[in-house]
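Repro:
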Amino acid sequence: MTSWVEGLGTDNYSRSTGEDAGRHTPSCSYVHPSQTRRTSYAKLRGMTSQNLARALDEFLSASSGAMVREDGAVLFDLAEAKYSISGESNKCLIHFWSEERNLVRRVLDIETKGETLRVTVQKMGQTKPVRLEICRERDPRSMSAKKSARAQYQRILERVLKKKFPDLSLVKLSRSMDLENSFGPIYARGLMKRGQSAFAVFGVNSHELQGSIDAALTFGILWLHSCRTENAGRLVVEGLMLFAPPGSSALLRDRIAHLNPETAKWRLYELDERSDELNQIEISDRGNVKTRLVRCADDEEVFSRFGGPIALVRSTMSNAEIGVLSPTEISFRCHGLEFARARMSAQPGKFHSTPELAFGAGPAQRLLDDRNLEDFERLVRSIGEVRHAEGPHECRWWRLHPERWLESLVIKDICALDDNLDPRWRYSQVPAFSAADRAMIDVLTVMRDGRLAILELKANEDIHLPLQGIDYWARVAWHHREGEFQKFGYFAGRELSPEPPLLMMVAPALHVHPATDTLLRYIHPEIEWVLLGIDERWRKDLRVVFRKRPQKLQFRTAV
């Protein structure tokens, strides 16, 4: 066993921030996470690769929820992604990876600015440096800056509404808190009317995070519904006018295209706050989903390729779950909690790649070698001892990643949700990328009659469950129409029904968000869905306690 890990890793300074039982302590002086906010790296020009690696490690060890940006675009969220750092062969390399992408950069220079670490890096095979930013704060603006930007946007939106829609009168425009209806200060919301007819207005400014922009439709629908309820019998609120920053509305467009046009008139605009220019976005084409599917790997072939790492892991945890991520990468998990990952790595002077294994249950991982084998085994044992249904609820290993835990149980016993699901075919975390975002379908399976089924799982209350379900349904439906699932190796030998897929949303019965029923009313009738409430003790007993299906509802959309 030891002979397999010899030489797989050398000077590797990444460590878990309390994530693994065997903390790796470099020979350098360690700065405690609580002190790193006061650390000033300045510019580390001329420093050795080892010192650069230590400085990166010190910053990242206190930044488990940081965002990693390159050229202004967010590439990784360290609440989900992993990283490792090495300082060897006179090179400092940083490696980030997630379910969606993989990135390796050579570190040349480091400097800090507030809660942001600016890292000058070099892409492999290129000479021109680029800037990588690791931001502890997801939105680094001060509270006063946020308030100022939102107040300015409200004034701009009010001016544009009056200028561009002179036949409508603005009744009100507000950013006030309304916790009862889930409205916060991020969005400007209002109502415009003409006679007895009106439109709900909802806008988000260009300084907000992309996640807040993508979430605008959820809250916009709830605002529309609130306006209809408040004005029942006095006004007919025909629909929603949604305003987003230029170039940011791709996901909103895709989602609106799959809402029911009989329940409301949907309008999407992009507003340039500098010029007051307003551009209406076309939303009528529900079939125009730009998405690509990742080929399904051959599990037997992959397991054979990674025989060494699999044997090593299972010698410590015999029931470890193995997730095939790609033909060259696998994940080891305990009830959905990833604690190690094996990947093929090219070795200098060798023609063939060899497997390497990195371990750690948090964002930081380090390569396994003969010197840290005991740390690895200690980590695996400590997770296995507590991550089970009867485990200590206060332990972090028990509490981490509940949705992945739920997913692991569904994969093992998918018929516990519905006897009509075919247990022979189920795929977890299927990548379906689009121009709007990079989605991972929780579970893709098939009914016994051949109809595709998408399982969207939530272990905790999530207001966005219905619209996230739309995302996955639209992509699966598109690939199904194009015949791509079997072309890319899914459902081999199984004849699929031409019917559109079934969307199954699964959550603990007492953790279904109260707004879910309202949001589901507005989904296009083409999307057949079922909401499954499962027993709150799902870790012990995966059992459905209620099912909800669409009901035919009447809406007035015109005077």
